[in-house]
Amino acid sequence: MADAALPILMYHGLHAGPADSGVYDAVYSVEPRDFAAQLDWLADNGYRTARLRDLQLQRTDSARNVMITFDDGDVSNLHVALPELLKRHMVAEFFVTADFVGRPGRLAPQDLRTLADAGMSVQAHGCSHRYLDELSLAEVEEELSAGKQRLEAILGQSVTALALPGGRGGERERVLALGMGYLDLLGSVPGRNRQWSRGRYLQRLAVTRGLALEDLASMVRGRGALPTLMQARYHVLALTKRLLGNRRYEHFRTWMLDR
Predict the structure, then answer these.
(1) Are 105 and 79 in contact (CB under 8 A)?
(2) pLDDT tens for residues 27-42?
(3) pLDDT at 197
(4) Cβ neighbours, 10 Å, residue 97
(5) Cα 127 versus chain centre, distance
(6) Residue 53 backbone dihedrals phi, psi, to 5 degrees
(7) Could you tell me the CA-to-CA distances from 159 to 81, 134, 163, 167, 203 in Å, in that order?
(8) Could you tell me the CATH number of the domain that includes residue 106?
């Protein structure tokens, strides 16, 4: 029986180490060799990669789909991810922060067009990467509209999907985004989207540095203890963010990583 859930994998950069091109992150920079092995596992286990525009989100799709997403717009998305995806006839969604375009270590305008021309989907990840839940209504409107318009000007095509920066946002951001022409919304709540529909927040599964292949398989299949542990960890971190606030939480996270 086909699995009707839609697991969405969330990546950022692909770096062997801090010296590689791009913006290295000790948590989210996945090693290129691990990324290649993860793609091979998906292919070997019958998963078909899909873009948001490939899916009819109003109904259950009987295919065994998986979605690969990248946040921020690291240059490794072009130099590392794209060749590995094309080699396996796979597709992905690239959520790009508009203000990052052209910065050192980030994708340039032509890079975005190269991704789109290769069959990938380039979508929005805010304008400045500020967390939307701590902004005023006017600031959220500017973040969502400016990010969308800048990418559309570069690509020459509509941008209809939004991944929340830092996964921060809720109903206010959802309503505003839909009113601006966004059709699909992605957060960072862990889960496999057993029931999903267009216009509601989609869950994602964060792929972090050093994640064992068997753990990726557990995440995608929704089996074993890891999916439950991921949800518990998410709720603990969400409570910590609410208690500390976004800025203090980020300082706390950096301090913990440096220990």
Answers:
(1) no
(2) 999 999 999 999 999 9
(3) 84
(4) 24
(5) 15
(6) -70, -15
(7) 21, 24, 12, 19, 20
(8) 3.20.20.370
- Taking the C-alpha atoms of residue 213 and residue 108, their distance in angstroms, rounded to an integer, is 32
| Radius of gyration for the alpha carbons in the chain, expressed in angstroms and rounded | 17
Q: How many CB atoms lie within 10 A of CB 152?
A: 16
Domain of residue 103, residue span: 8-224
pLDDT at 239 over 50: yes
Q: What DSSP designation does 203 have? A: P
In a domain, 232, yes or no: no
- The model's pLDDT over 160-169, given as tens digits with 9 standing for 90+, comes to 999 999 999 9
Residue 173 sits at φ, ψ, to 5 deg, of -70, -35
Q: Give one word for 78, left, alpha or beta, with left for phi > 0 and alpha for psi -120 to 50.
A: alpha
How many structural domains does the chain have? 1
Q: What is the pLDDT of residues 52-75, one digit of tens each?
A: 999 864 444 556 899 999 999 999
- The answer to the question of residue 76 being in a domain is yes
- Looking at the chain, how many residues does it have? 259
Strand (E) or helix (H) holding 233:
helix 226-244
pTM of the model: 0.88
User: Residue 259 pLDDT > 50, yes or no?
Assistant: no
Average pLDDT (11-40) is: 98
CA dist 192 and 166 (Å) reads 19
For residue 245, is it within any domain? no
Task: Say if residues 90 and 49 touch (Cβ distance below 8 Å).
Answer: yes
Dig out the tokens for 119 from the structure.
């069959």
